[in-house]
Write a structure and sequence with these properties.
Elements: E1 2-3, E2 7-11, H1 17-32, H2 45-54, E3 56-62, E4 65-73, E5 103-110, H3 119-133, E6 138-144, H4 148-156, E7 160-166, E8 171-178
Helix pairs in contact: 1-2
Length: about 180
């Protein structure tokens, strides 16, 4: 799929692991330079490869250069579930209608030199279209609470804050969009 006449969007395959990882790692370095380390030890090449195999990972390129990526799943992230977090709390229960099927967004990353060009917004629109086509009425994600620009980005796209994931350094807002 082509959007903005400059970028290509493909479903990532195992052979794209390096490109997806490069986008995430470059975005991680940018986050680190701003004092945010949430991706530092989490997104390994192994996890990226596993996501490509087990979830839907989209990759945006400009010619052959990787530009952005996002991971989509119908399953909540493991750390939302009681058995996988120190609080032993099911954070997915905080969503508006937690038992209804949803698309979960993770690892939405845009290489810094391509930020501000509407790529992330377009990716969210594509995910919304996928949800509608699958008759799924909810899109869910979490976003770092002290990353105000990101929170505002999602709020402008119609997401609402429905809960909070406490972390030692900062909290993460659970966010949801309903159609």
């Amino acid at each position: 799929m082509v959007f903005f006449k400059k970028y290509n969007l493909v479903g990532a395959k195992k052979c794209d692991t390096e490109d997806v990882y490069r986008v995430i790692n470059t975005a991680n370095e940018w986050l680190l330079s701003r004092g945010m380390d949430q991706w530092q030890d989490y997104y390994t090449k192994e996890l990226v490869r596993s996501n490509i195999i087990n979830k839907e990972v989209l990759l945006v390129t400009q010619k052959v250069e990787p530009v952005a990526t996002v991971t989509i799943s119908t399953n909540p992230p493991n750390y939302y579930l009681a058995e996988n977090n120190p609080e032993n709390f099911d954070y997915s229960s905080l969503f508006i209608n937690p038992t209804k099927q949803a698309l979960y967004i993770s690892a939405l990353a845009v290489i810094p030199k391509f930020q501000g060009k509407g790529i992330a917004k377009e990716l969210v629109k594509i995910i919304e279209q996928k949800a509608k086509e699958s008759q799924i009425n909810f899109i869910r994600l979490d976003a770092r609470g002290d990353y105000k620009e990101l929170i505002n980005f999602y709020l402008k796209l119609g997401f609402i804050k429905v809960g909070e994931l406490p972390e030692p350094d900062t909290s993460y807002f659970l966010m949801e969009k309903t159609f």
